[in-house]
Amino acid sequence: MSFDLAYGPALALAGLGALIDIRDRRLPNWLCALLSVAAIVGLVSSQGLSVVPSALLHASLGLVAGAVLFRVGAIGAGDAKFYAAAASGLPLGKALFLLGWTSAAGLGLLVVMIVARFLRPASRTGSILRGWSVPYGVAIFLGFALTVTLAKA
Prior knowledge:
- The chain has 153 residues and is an all-alpha fold.
- The chain has one domain.
- The chain is built from six helices and no strands.
């Protein structure tokens, strides 16, 4: 189990995004832009230019789906842009891997947060999810890292 070193900078930026999202509950536009560029460079370095149109279609579809999810209040705008940035480094054929790993990581993150909140006595008032925002940048980072590592072309 190893990832292509060409994706190293993109993975580092995605990891930075996860940390920023944990701390601030936001994913800045500049970071999404840098992640997108680094992911595309990683893709071109590892697979060549021919897969870039497929990756850009993947990113576009991810951004449209993210915009719809943002519109209905399911995710934040930064999450939608961050996911699309990660998707820009993966051809469309890996879309289900990225979506699946990100979803699994998001579910795991939510379970950990619920357990942690339940165990803290001070937070047992009202709904266990009241006043929460989930740092979904963590799930996107994990989904991207697992896809790059496990979903070989």
